[in-house]
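Q: Sequence in, structure out?
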Amino acid sequence: MRQFGVLGLPVHIHENYRDWLAQRLQASQGTHVVTINAEMTMQARKNPDLANVIKQAELVVPDGSGIVLYLRSQGQKINRCPGIELSEQIVQVAAEQQWRVFLIGGAPNVVDTVVDIWQQKWTDIAIAGMHHGYFDDMLEQQVCEQLQSAQPDLILVGLGVPRQELWIQKYRHLCPNAVWIGVGGSFDIWSGLKTRAPEWFSNNNLEWLYRLYQEPWRWRRMLSLPHFVWCVTKDSLFKPKKV
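A: Exactly. Output:
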């Protein structure tokens, strides 16, 4: 596993993230997977707690085009690894191996729809439990009790950034041998509530534009993209860093 730095944060480069994670699942090696993009990187510059979580994660995959383009500019041979695709690939492996999966996040009924779809797609999938992401302290305690009792192998947490990363760090001790993945809004896409960008957008590093079209309220968050470009340019020219 090669590791490189982007604005002081690690990014891991591997030829096959799916197989690496499958090996971790097989060996019951606890793992926190972070799928990093430019927006998360800029959030981490303002949020030391998020930055620390990313630095401590066992796997940080290059989800965003900005991360990939920057590392390529530094001479690294790297391809983008969309978190939603990696997560679905590892769910398929889990279904084939009957490793137990737990889903947390999304709006009420969304994860139920995802489970229904997956059970039709993979008849042998083992669902250890599920819960939507709208919980107060009391419901959160119930979720934690379910996790501790079920001891699933794979836990998908879709609470948005940075909440899901901080939540995983806080509670991963409940299932220390599990693979935990922050999946953002993937449940909405898996359920059919939303759609991914057409392939042309993805191939041309414009998936962010399609997301902005679907969710115009994100425009303020999208301002982090030019800021990211400025920061990595300045970092490369004046303060080269290595992790």
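The chain has a mean pLDDT of 89.
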